Prior knowledge:
By secondary structure, the protein is α+β, with helices and mostly antiparallel strands.
Amino acid sequence: xxxxxxxxxxxxxxxxxxxxxxxxxxxxxxxxxxxxxxxxxxxxxxxxxxxxxxxxxxxxxxxxxxxxxxxxxxxxxxxxxxxxxxxxxxxxxxxxxxxxxxxxxxxxxxxxxxxxxxxxxxxxxxxxxxxxxxxxxxxxxxxxxxxxxxxxxxxxxxxxxxxxxxxxxxxxxxxxxxxxxxxxxxxxxxxxxxxxxxxxxxxxxxxxxxxxxxxxxxxxxxxxxxxxxxxxxxxxxxxxxxxxxxxxxxxxxxxxxxxxxxxxxxxxxxxxxxxxxxxxxxxxxxxxxxxxxxxxxxxxxxxxxxxxxxxxxxxxxxxxxxxxxxxxxxxx
Length: 332
């Protein structure tokens, strides 16, 4: 029987991961798969004898188990945090600031771009800032001075309407993937790295890294300190901040030290937002904080490419079969 690699083979680099996984899962589950966009994989259908469903790539949800209200609430990081805190789930908090004057009449005072600098000063001149509805780690970074903040807001305004500004936290980062209340996997998240070749400078290595990010629609990396030194061959240099796979980060299948507490927190977060499928990112082992753990954010449409990278085709099938069952294409 064909494996997942056979379904990936021959596809262009732009072919969506989930179209590959859906075709593979359909073949393993006795369902039909139909590519609907001339081989691009951007629109496809899956079906049984009785019914069929269509999916699209990009920002379209691959998890019809999550209703539109729940998925939309999770997408807005501020709204999600308000609901999570109401449910007793510790988050990173934060304040929203809008980058454009449009829709000004629809919001109260204190959330305009001019207010962001005042809030930044209240945080002691250091903050973690990210787009309110961003994904894949795009433009998510720590900022430590006012000039950098001004430049950041200029750049963010080119692509987004608002940002979320938070206090900087330090801890071990994990992703907990849930199907209903079941933990499918837990993974530790790690910062991106560049690896020296003994020839190119750190700046040149970062430039190559950044070019690859921009080609995927993700903002450049942010690295502090001098970058004109030649990095010795094999030496690894981390890029602090975001740990998203799409931003060059890495994950490894590994549960948190306190599994019970982390899984309880993840389940409560998903339930609070009404999600049946969720990837809950959280900090554990927080340094200098009264809370042992805090939820970073909850993803209602998470990528599962990590499972392909670590050879867990069984979990990819588990996730898609949950979807097929929820759609009424398979019976429990």
